[in-house]
């Protein structure tokens, strides 16, 4: 009997188990891990993969995360903000192609003009198709008041990656100032949960200084926070960032891809009914990266539907694909690939996280 057979029978995976499964080089164990993740997904999430169209609203950001290509300090980045017509055009594209929902992603800003603009966009997108489109926001840390305003306008899901759950690692990846506080990020995640958002977080995988024990802790962190959705993917260096000089010390691209897929598989086994996205960054490392993520337990596909022309400026990392996700053929080829896995696309469905419904139900019953 292989070590993995013992491990996968357990109710709860320990830190040591997770490290073992992230590191094993045994081919049979690797196959067993992915099959277990797929079986878990089928049992707890069903055969359908959700579709969310990502609209990259603006690459103007007030922060200076040391890994990110659109950090405020990068003078090379050409800045843009989509005008409302372009956003609504993208949302219409989503609607017409049966995408259940859209994600509005943007650099972080706190000025009133920005927060009011998001409120207004959410309201306009809600009106399209009479509320048919679900709306996820990913616009960074905001005050409770702003999160409330956006929720009341119609947003129901929010993505805020913790990036690295270890405090020390977080500190090394961000400038040491109050604008990049680990505690404030944690606080924001708690507020989002309390406001009833389906709350998502995630980490980057294969970061400088990151160990497999850190990754195991990231998984335990997400479980501990009882998160509803996760988007995580490989770290990909960007040449115009302070961390780029560490590129030579990173795991190889193939290793980062493999680690990312294992993280997805392990999280699926640990948190059976959450939504896990196949991240765009995976596609940078492998043209079939997102299909492989689905085969490893992810159940949400997020095509980029930012109007061409601007999409190439949202350059978080080097080689970010400007694949033509808008093209109907891209979706068709994705669909064919997942059909081969016995899965299908959930058209016109918000595909809410089952975990969230359970969490809300429990909270109601316990009065908490
Ligand atoms: N590599 C991979 N992902 C990155 N992000 C930012 N920079 C990079 C990079 N160099 C991710 C962060 C952020 C999201 C918008 O993009 O996790 O939350
Ligand atoms: Fe801004 Fe997000 Fe990039 Fe940090 S990771 S610089 S908050 S866009």
SSE topology string: HHHEHEHEHEHHEEHEHEHHEHEH
| β-sheet strand percentage | 5-15%
How many helices? The count is 14
Query: Which structural class do you get from the secondary structure elements?
Result: alpha/beta
Could you give the distance between the termini? Answer: 44 Å
The CATH superfamily name is Aldolase class I
Largest sheet strand order = 1-2-3-4-5-7-8-9
Shape: globular
CATH architecture: Alpha-Beta Barrel
Poorly predicted regions? none
Oligomeric nature of the chains:
single chain
pLDDT averaged residue by residue = 93
- CATH C-level category: Alpha Beta
Furnish the topology, listing elements before pairings.
Layout: H1 3-8, H2 15-23, H3 27-45, E1 48-58, H4 84-96, E2 101-106, H5 112-127, E3 134-138, H6 144-153, E4 157-159, H7 167-173, H8 182-194, E5 198-201, E6 204-205, H9 212-225, E7 229-234, H10 253-270, E8 275-278, H11 280-285, H12 289-295, E9 300-301, H13 328-339, E10 344-346, H14 354-366
Parallel strand pairs: 1-2, 1-9, 1-10, 2-3, 3-4, 4-5, 5-7, 6-7, 7-8, 8-9
The structure holds 5'-deoxyadenosine (5AD) and iron/sulfur cluster.
